[in-house]
Give the backbone structure.
Amino acid sequence: MSLGIAERADRLVAAFEAKGLEVSANLRPGLSREDIIKATAAVGLTVPPEVIELYQWRDGHVDEFAEACIQFRDNTFLSLERALEEYEWLTELSSDDDADDFGVDLRTCLPIAAFDGALYVVACGQHGFGADKPHPVISSFEGVELYFHSVSAMLDTSIDWVSHPAWPDFGDAAEDVEMDIWKRHNPGIFED
């Protein structure tokens, strides 16, 4: 049986808390399906079910700059309000050429996590990352790259990273450990 978004997110919270980070105390309550759809439709986005389920589960953090935050690798889970603020910023920087240049029009993506100008965005429209990945999570920072096949894959990858005995400092094997976990949940990622 496949786990849903809420179950995966709960497992990620448990993994952080097993490492001593009390992230649950810093999570905002989830939003209603109607509020999520209304807020994202107001900017012209139709978000996929996984994004709706994520924001129904929780609406980001009370303090997104606290140490006790859910992070997907190095980007912090945003509230929907902050996600829409980042979306506005992202669309100001985007152009009609994005789909040709990057394989996705960033104006059709919703940011869900951020850190210092880096964004993880979910493709809500057409993209060039493969039909087998209808709504991939894409990193928009010093380039635009496929990072996770889906929100589910991002959560599964993050659970395994945080659950690893050596997390957060994998030591000399950091890149190998991180990449092995990444590729296990997202086959073909970072390959030409």
Q: What stands out?
A: Strands lie at 27-29, 58-61, 71-72, 75-77, 109-115, 118-123, 137-140, 144-148. The two ends are 32 Å apart (CA to CA). The mean pLDDT is 90. Residues 5-18 form the longest helix (14 residues).
